[in-house]
Every structure is written in C-alpha cells, then in structure tokens.
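# nightly structure sweep
# worker-07 picked up a monomer target from the shared queue
# config: single-sequence mode, recycle default, output format = structure tokens
# input follows
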Amino acid sequence: MDEPELLAEMDRMLERAVRVARGGDLPGALTLLAELHGRAALWWEPGSDDVDGGRRVVRVRRQLFLLHFARG
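# output follows
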C-alpha cells in the first residue's frame, strides 16, 4: 500500500471510529482507534519533517483521550 492509500485508509478508520462512538459503542470505537494508533505509530516517526503525518497522529490520540474520558 503506498502512502496516499495508507493515509486515505487512516482517514476512513478515524471517521468510522467517530461514527461508532456517536452511535454509543465506546468500547468498539476505542478498539478501532487503538488499531489506528498502532498503524499510525508504525508509519510516522516523532521528530520527522512530516507535519501532516504528525497531525494525523495527534487527531487519533485526541479521539482516544476523549473516548477514555467519556468512559470514565
């Protein structure tokens, strides 16, 4: 899978996780986000010049934090 396809897949996974969370399935959304975070962490390296990649990782981490907070 080349980079544009990977980024598109990551965006689709994030959108799906948000829809699942809004549907009330917080554990399911957390599972999706954890998988997405794992993929993103393997793909993007901290300190790299890839600002867009870093922003994607931050969006995923933000969603993970919000869902963990919502679950209590």
